[in-house]
Amino acid sequence: MVELKFTALKSNGQAITGTVTANSSVEGKKKIQRLAEKNRLKLSNVEKKSTYIYRVRKGKEKPIRGEQKAFSKKEVEDALARLGYSVLSVNKKLLDFQKKPPANEIVTFVKISAELLNQKLGYGEILTLLTNDTQNATLRSTLKEISNDLRKGADSEATFLKYQNIFGKFTAYMLGLASKSGNMAEIYNATAKFLERKQEFNKSLRSALITPMVTLFVLFLAVLFYVGYIFPETAKLFVRFGIELPPMTAFTLKISDFVIAHPILIAAVVFIPPIALFQFSRTSKGRLLFDEYILKLPVIGTLIHKTVIEVFCRVFYTLYHGSAESIEPIRIAAEATGNRYFEERIKNIAIPLMLKKGAGVTDAFEAAGVFTETAISRIHSGEESGTIKNTALQLANYYESETVFRLKNLIEIIQVTIAMIIMVIMIALTLVSAETATVRPKTPGVS
């Protein structure tokens, strides 16, 4: 996200200034241009907020260095002068890019904030404490800017959404909403719980899927190297002497010859499909299809599906305040799941049914076709008894317990399966090597 400040003149000659945020400078300038055309403004200046490196001194003290984001060099100089510093130098940072903080840093910030809010500390004091103690430079700089904006009276929701590239869209929305909600500690606690569960599930999913896939891929390359390079050196030596090869050795040599003769074909078969699939999954249509079919995979798809419902219910519980204001919590909860297919079904089917036809929550969710029978049954009971908020929390906790248990079992099964595959391949290679070792040249003079 980038922030741009513009200066413009009204038709009566009055100068006005404003700021906009966008994903890029080009998008931001287009947004400003549309705003100017709509309000008949004459743009005079557009400045992008950048990082400036400064060197200052107070009195006879040792000079100190620091960084500050601002729209211009003069803005930094004036701010430092107001603080009583003698400005020695201010220069724009040449490589002004920020790497997103690790997920665990964001989780730590939200969790500690929740604990301090429970202890009744003021939010301004909490931001100051965490800004000073945060190790990650990007997060520290972001918290400092948020603190400065809030002190100036900026809207908390708009302020946090400016940094959604740092926190993530959902987290930024929740933290911005917390300051205006009246139950700040509760929302921070719920957000911390959500982030911890998401981090834990992603870690478990990596253990269940990514690690085994990497292991099998490395094993495949090792076998390819053995068959394509090491094995032929021995086997072809026998062929040159006219020695008849045993069956497994002869078959392996044929495979080796094919691999050596068609390296481009082998590389294309191995690398092109996953690369093409990855690129397709980054498109809107590809992401939608990927998220749809991943929920239908055997075993792992069921776990992911239930985890998506758990996240939805947990966020819905946090934001829901009554049937009269249920649409916005449903929309935000759908976005928080991270599954595009689930989100689209809720937004394009469930919500329109509720708005246009006055359907109840249960009927709308059932029509969306993305909830399990158990979830629909529990939501129906909660809607009839007027306890849908608590029912959502119970459902989230139930699916959390179930998915954690089943995922652990799945990881153990996958680990055993991978170990068996490695064992079978190693036995096969050992048998081929052992058979090759039994080959003996004919004794001279013996027919």
How would you sum up this structure, described in words?
The protein is mainly alpha-helical and 447 residues long. It is 69% helix and 10% strand. The chain is built from 18 helices and six strands. The protein has helices spanning 25-39, 73-82, 103-118, 123-133, 137-151, 156-161, 164-167, 169-181, 184-240, 247-261, 263-281, 284-294, 300-319, 327-336, 340-356, 361-368, 373-385, 388-437, and strands at residues 2-9, 15-22, 42-48, 50-57, 64-70, 86-92. Strands 2-1-3 form a three-stranded antiparallel beta sheet, with helices on one face. A hairpin with a 5-residue loop joins strand 1 and strand 2 (15-22). Helix 3 runs antiparallel to helix 9, helix 8 packs antiparallel against helix 9 (184-240) and helix 9 crosses helix 10. The protein is globular. The termini are far apart. The mean pLDDT is 84.
Keywords:
447 residues, mainly alpha, three-stranded antiparallel beta sheet, 18 helices, 6 strands
Radius of gyration over alpha carbons? 31 Å
Strand arrangement, largest sheet?
Answer: 2-1-3
Number of separate strands: 6
Bulk shape: globular
The share of residues in extended strands comes to 5-15%
Helix percentage: 55-70%
Largest sheet: 3 strands, antiparallel
What count of helical segments does DSSP give?
18
Computed structural class: mainly alpha
| Element string (H = helix, E = strand) | EEHEEEHEHHHHHHHHHHHHHHHH
Give the CA-CA distance, first to last residue: 82 Å
Uncertain residue ranges: none
Please tell me the overall pLDDT.
Answer: 84
